[in-house]
Amino acid sequence: MRFPCLLLLAVLLAGCERNHVERERQRAALDVLISSGVVSRVEFVDRQHDKTNVFAGAKALPVLALLNATNRIDKPPPDTKHYSDWIFLFRNEMPIRMEYYPRQQVLSFRGYRFGLKGTNDILRLFE
Description:
Layout: H1 2-35, E1 39-46, E2 51-56, H2 60-66, E3 72-74, E4 85-91, E5 94-101, E6 106-109, E7 112-116
Antiparallel strand pairs: 1-2, 1-4, 3-7, 4-5, 5-6, 6-7
C-alpha cells in the first residue's frame, strides 16, 4: 500500500514541477517580447462592449512599460473559468494574444498568469 501512494505522490510532484517550468519559460518569453523593441502595436479588445483601442509606435511604449517584468506579480491559476478580454501584441504585423480577466485583475500569456504591482492601469486602456 505504501509503494502506490509514494508513486502517486512522485507523479503529482513531477507534474507540478513541469507546470512551474513551463510558466517560467513563458514568463521569460514575455520578457523578451516586451523588452526587445519588436512590438510595434498593442490592441486592447473589450469583447463585452465590442470595442478596440489601438496604441501604435511611440504610444505603445508606455503600455509595454506597464507590462515590464519589474511591474508584474505572479498569480495562481483560477479556480473557475471567467470571461476575458484580449490584448494583442503585434510583432511584424503578427498578433500575439494575451488575456485579461477583469474580475480577478489578472493577465495571462500562454499559461503564465500575473497581475500588476500597485495599479490596475490596464483597465483604463480598454475604455
